[in-house]
# Entry
Amino acid sequence: GDASAATATAAVVRHQRSGSHGSSRRNNGGGGGGTDGCVGRGSFKRVQSNIYLGRSDSDSGIGVGAGRTRSGVGGGLGVGGGEPYRLRAVGHSMGGMSLLVHCVARGQARSRVHRLILLTPAGFHVEIPLAAELICMFLPPVLRLARLVWPRFAAGLFIPTHLVRRIVFKLFRDIHAIPSALDLVKLATRFMLSNDGSQWDRALQMPHYNATDMPAVSVFQLMHMVQCTHAGRFQMYDYGGAAANAAAYGPEYATRDGPPDIAAQYGRLGGMPVDLVAGTHDGVIPAANIRAHHSSMLAAGVRATYREFEFGHLDFTFAVKEDLKLYMMRLLRK
# Structure
């Protein structure tokens, strides 16, 4: 799991359809129903994160852009033998993972997405930082124990109560006034996140982190990442048994080992171009994980490209540099 999902990473576009950050507290994991032996239609709904909507012919923000085609804007889809718009979808981290689940679940025709641009997407986790290793070690037994006490246990991970949040965020501001303490915090963060080059100390001072409210991440989102790490593949949420997976994804999974494998179904993307971007200084989702996506897509016949920038994990959405902006706009105009 990573902090960008908790912050629902900010991409400035109009007509946003994402809910408030507080909605992530009610998220219950990454599963959904299946109908045809592939990923179920509703499966992507439980992997909520940073996906936004906008029009790429008037906005320069990152999100899902709708650009007009030659058919013009008609009365509906199929006017003049084609669709009146094309969607370009951009996702970062868990947002990229969510887009892949959505597009694989629905296929190219039904997703209505013309192009995917994925910035250091989650899903494959062949290399993980120390913080993720600790989560993988302790979260499963803690969650099992919680389920024994309360079978319907679900929780959002965030700093509770107004008072505690005020104390914590005041502490962060005070640390910035003490250079030696700030250097120590940065050193500890880099150690836990495999020397990730992001400005995590500044990210935690964003306006949506305050005493009144803050983003949260579902414990089941983190558990989904743990499952992908342990399985060594990009898969849907494992409900813990064949019967539970069959109830979520369809009766055919009653005899299969584990939940649907998303990467194994990349062929459902059809002719949709997919542009993968990795950060050479990203310690949260290192470039090796993005290359695993790229290799799987090429093996499935997907039109996938791969590019690296000298960015940390949060640099793709926090203090975005000009070279990434130019690259993104060039892709969005295609």
Notes: Residues 235 and 262 are 5 Å apart (CA to CA). Confidence is low (pLDDT under 50) at residues 1-81.
